[in-house]
Amino acid sequence: MKQLSIFIENKQGTLLTVLNVLKNANIQIIASTISDTQDFGIYRIICDDPERAYVVLGEQGVSVTLTEVFAIQLEDKPGEAARVLALFAEADISIAYMYSFLLSGKGILVFRSSDTEKTKQVIADKSLQEFC
Amino acid sequence: MDINSPYFHPEYETLSREEIGKLQTNRLQETIKRCSQVPFYAQKFKEMGIKPEDIASPEDIRKLPFTTKQDLRDTYPFGLAAVPLSDCVRLHSSSGTTGNPTVILHTQNDLDEWANQVARNLWMVGLRPDDVFQNSSGYGMFTGGLGFQYGAERMGMLTVPAAAGNSLRQIKFIKDFGTTAIHAVPSYLTRLYEVMQEQGVDPRTDTNLRVFAIGAEPHSEEQRQRIENMFGVKAYNSFGMSEMCGPGVGFECQEQNGLHFWEDYYIVEIVNPETLEPVPDGEIGELVLTTLRREAMPLIRYRTRDLTRVLGRSCPCGRNHVRIDRMKGRSDDMIVLRGVNIFPIQIEKILMTFPELASNYLITLSTDNDNDNMTVEVELAEMFTDDYARLHSLTKNLTRALKDEILLTPIVKLVPKGSLPVSEGKAVRVVDKRKVYL
């Protein structure tokens, strides 16, 4: 699934600028994350129309790229994330970053892995369900 | 040498304005004769129809052509030599990062005269042969090293070539050798004080320090006073440039009211950098210097690009040599940071080698905790990654490349595309927020 990765300067108002661009284009954010930053940060967004978001943000001069990430759908119950991550760990796949959210009673685990091909293989072999 | 005399060269230091004028006229004629041996000048004199006998007063210097740093580069390495190389004994060179380096040649006599100027200055601020002088300045090509070394020795002081850095060793020398005077860039003295504090050394009670010579980087009156108050030591402003010889060209006397530029060695002009016409005393313009004693490489009307003004032509100290204000800035875009000369084009050149970066950049100079720093903000061309590590390694590689070029480590900040002022015509690339030039 495609995630927006936006270069954000650590300055008051920069997040709001991005959010306003998406609002004006009527694009809905499903999940987003940004961690503590020093001079800059990467603002990562899952939204309902990443391709269009990429275009409108670019037009407004926002430094943005589209990143291919994995989004795995989980049951909303304890231990699900641990179960899934164990499968990747067994396959010697490491996780660059990860975040999760709940949507319509489903847990969604978003992550970027060290090895796209291997990850796809695990998803297929273990019949994991991707969110899209 | 009468150690009770306030003057090292009373015969020159106490000349009246009229006597200075006569001396300059004679010495300018000699300089023109020497320059006639240099094809570069001979050609110009011929075109302009100038002969030594055309000079009847120092003001006649306005008939003569200017010399620029570019001329030094264009004639690299030996094109401005006025004597055979076999008569030269020393060469100093700039790093030449913005093109050809510049080369300055010296005869033995030039070195002697250079040492004389420095010795005169050190005597002027009250140092005497029983003082111990620690030169905490870079050596090598940087003229602040050998220049002060030879001058302090000429004056008769025990001179310690401590060179720059290694504060613990500097402090040990100061204590063990009974150092009374130090030459250093002002920012280094602030650093030295911090280390003294860490080591529990009180400069007022644990050392014999009483005089500092500071120069080679812009600093404010406020900064000088802070250094004086930290150490309880008088700090005197020094001006020099390798094109003239090095340090020694101008120095504050104990009045600390402007730097006496030695008019038996130089003709000092302040001109409007646009029109190149002289400006009245008190008005800021570009400092232009003509050497009067240099043999190996005399320079006529050398445009220093430093902005300053004449404060006066008399002084309670008894010296009538022109008093020049501390440097107020530059008429080109050269940055002087911690004694290092940097042109924005050097930074631009490095940025261009990184395809991840756009062409807009902004250099900010600031004073943080008494240290002068350079911050380089540069726009990303495109967001090329989703990976913090790659952005951090870009910052790191860029910092290293800039350090290799400008010899200082700047603070590098990546900023989004379009966030810096757009270059319309001449873009503002440098913002100077340092506490200098006051």
CATH-wise, what's the superfamily of the largest domain in chain B?
ANL, N-terminal domain
The span between the termini of chain A is 6 Å
**Residue share in β-strands of chain B:** 15-25%
SS content category of chain A = alpha+beta
Specify the CATH homologous superfamily of the largest domain in chain A: VC0802-like
The number of domains of chain A is: 2
Order of helices and strands of chain A: EHEEHEEHEEHE
**Residues in helix, % of chain A:** 25-40%
The low-confidence parts of chain A are none
Distance between the termini of chain B: 38 Å
Regarding quaternary structure, how should these chains be classified?
Answer: heterodimer
Biggest pleated sheet of chain A: 4 strands, antiparallel
Q: Could you tell me the radius of gyration of chain B in angstroms? A: 23 Å
Helix content of chain B: 25-40%
Number of helices of chain A: 4
Which spans of chain B have pLDDT < 50 for at least 5 consecutive residues? none
Q: For the record, what CATH class of the largest domain in chain B applies?
A: Alpha Beta
Give the strand tally of chain B.
Answer: 21
Number of strands of chain A: 8
